[in-house]
Amino acid sequence: MSAPYILVLYYSRHGATAEMARLIAEGVEAGGLEARLRTVPGVSPDHRASSPEIPENGAIYCTEEDLRQCAGLALGSPTRFGNMAAPLKYFIDGTSSLWLTGALAGKPAAVFTSTASLHGGQESTLLSMQLPLLHHGMLLVGLPYTEPALTETQGGGTPYGASHHAGTDGARILDRHESALCKALGKRVATTARQLMAGANHAKS
């Protein structure tokens, strides 16, 4: 049996969401658990997977088993009209077998997003990603205002999850507040997962 890990699952078109995923993974490992970075393939207009079977670079594609066996989940997507991107939704829509068995119930989860404009749907995108996780019975972990960067940020950052303002040309890199919140979110998911696992082990003993 593999060591417990947090699955950092994302779709990224231009790299900003992928960079957020990397920072969240840093936070996960600072929280004492392994981070497993995974992505999903793009989809064609008829909603079928359209990317190569193996990505040319970056994280490999997520499998159902990656999701089934995780101790917690961080789910990320760029904003598409205030919603998650189609490739990520296509993947999530295919997880009904996990829902039927309750495989994800009781596990912590968090969400993150990157947008081109500052008020371009960050919060609604985060909320849209939370909905299927609630249906799976996952325990949502946000960002509390005890994180100083949440009140100091002039870019992204919400109590619903980490966010980033990439700019209309996608060239704006994550600033120090956005980066800090990504790491804080990853650490919070890992810490929560560890506490839940410790509680479950204590109940068994």
UniProtKB/TrEMBL annotation:
Q: Which UniProt keywords apply?
A: Flavoprotein, FMN, Oxidoreductase
Name of the protein this chain belongs to: NAD(P)H:quinone oxidoreductase
Coiled-coil region list: none
Q: Identify the Pfam families for this entry.
A: FMN_red
> Which PANTHER family does the UniProt record give?
FLAVODOXIN-RELATED PROTEIN WRBA-RELATED, FLAVOPROTEIN-LIKE PROTEIN YCP4-RELATED
Q: Which GO terms describe its cellular component?
A: membrane
The segment(s) forming the Flavodoxin-like domain are 6-190
Cofactor requirement: FMN
Q: Does the keyword Transmembrane helix apply?
A: no
GO MF annotations, alphabetized: electron transfer activity; FMN binding; NAD(P)H dehydrogenase (quinone) activity
Which family does the UniProt entry place this protein in?
Belongs to the WrbA family.
> What are its E.C. numbers?
1.6.5.2
Q: Which organism is it from?
A: Halopseudomonas xinjiangensis
